[in-house]
Design goal:
two-stranded antiparallel sheet; 8-stranded mixed beta sheet; 10 strands; globular; alpha/beta; 234 residues
Amino acid sequence: MNRTALAIRHVAFEDLGILEPLLIERGYAVRYLEAGVDEIDQAAITATDLLVVLGGPIGVYDTERYPFLAAEKAAIAARLKQDKPTLGICLGAQLMAEALGATVAATGKVEIGYGALTLSDEGRASPLRHLGAIPVLHWHGDQFSIPEGASRLAETQGFPNQAFAPGPRILGLQFHLEADHRQIERWLIGHAHELTANGLELAAIREDAVRHGPRLEHAARAVIAEWLDRLTTG
């Protein structure tokens, strides 16, 4: 019998990307819950074998503007309380951090484009070790603090909290390991206003996607594969 993987998706182009075929290879039946469209079924979110909470251009503090976030937060909190395998990416990691008691806030700046991480000692002992000095895709302006009892795994100069893990079954990533470099144009179109407002050069992001994307895809698959392996052996 297949295991189930449920991905909460907030915008169409921020999907599982390169991780979906890996999950399928690992025997997961993958399906999406479209946030803001589909009903937030807390029982389904807590029951799935693996939950992936994907990114999106809203903030955890936007509940009044996007009321569905209240139900999504409650479901994520219920799952984390049960310590079930959960991966959060960008907004997903921020939602997880808040559910674990950490603060999340806008920084007034953005980190968008490819850039390398600096791993902590805990990060070098984690599956993130496969990244080495390979630049990853950043696309955020908000920042989470590290939840109490969790390990801080990575940082960049502008955003010191890039990844956290309260234990082997929960992983929050501020950056995007899932993004398919072959689909970067979807990101450039979907985030056109943000890119223009911050005066960012699209050509540089396109060039870096070509330059770093293939190596990053290989390393990202290794990261998630090892994390999945630890779920079954930890």
